[in-house]
Amino acid sequence: MARYKDEQCRICRREGQKLFLKGTRCYSDKCSISRRNYAPGQNGQKKKKLSEYGTQLREKQKTKAFYGVSEKQFRKYFDMASKSKGKTGEVLLQILESRLDNVVYRLGLASSRAQARMQVTHGAFEVNGQKLDIPSYLVKAGDVIAVREIRKDNGTIKLSVEENASRPVPAWLEKDTEKLSGKVVTLASREDVDLPVEEHLIVELYSK
Question: Among 26, 61, 101, 206, which lies 20 to 30 A Cα-Cα from 70?
């Protein structure tokens, strides 16, 4: 699957806000938003008025980048949300929050979603006692996510746990730092999503 391989900080600068794509760097003085809070490129400092379509597109691109999903995946999740009960935009965000790589990141077992995705792909985690290496797996209420026993000495995971010890865990998750595991108490609600996004703009974009 195609992935954005250019400098991640350019994405944050394009969107004009932190998307926490670089882990602990995003919390330091090295963060590009703190140093150069304007769009990349020679015309980046010029203010541009976006059209209605442009505004909707930027919301979609921002949300895709935040969760690290491709256009194909994002469209699939939107179609799932549109067929579900409830507000399409809120259900879409709930689905994105339910991805295994996002849950691993939310539990503080990885410093970024990209790192979480890599660790899951490499078989470092299990769900309900079974090894699972699919980052896009959608967790359910009651699922227990844990570092596999043979990976508990992994230096990257240990460092992530130490660096993220003070980072709050969302109310919809329970974390057991000692066991390097967590439980999905319930699925995420709209209030649990910390990304400043106007999801109704995404719905309007796809509804055209």
Answer: 26
Residues contacting residue 94 through CB under 8 Å, at least 6 positions apart: 81, 187, 188, 189, 190
- What's phi and psi for 6, nearest 5 deg? -80, 180
Strand partners of residue 144: 183
The pTM for the full model equals 0.79
Site of tokens 């980046």 = 44
- Tokens found for residue 88: 């399409």
Number of residues that make up the chain: 208
Torsion sign over Cα 6, 8, 13, 16? positive
Q: What is the pLDDT of residue 195?
A: 87
pLDDT band at 42 (very low <50, low <70, confident <90, very high): low
Nearest to 132 by CA among 148, 113, 112: 148
Average pLDDT over residues 37-66: 77
Q: Which helix (H) or strand (E) holds 100?
A: helix 100-106
Question: Which 3 state secondary structure label does DSSP give 71?
Answer: helix
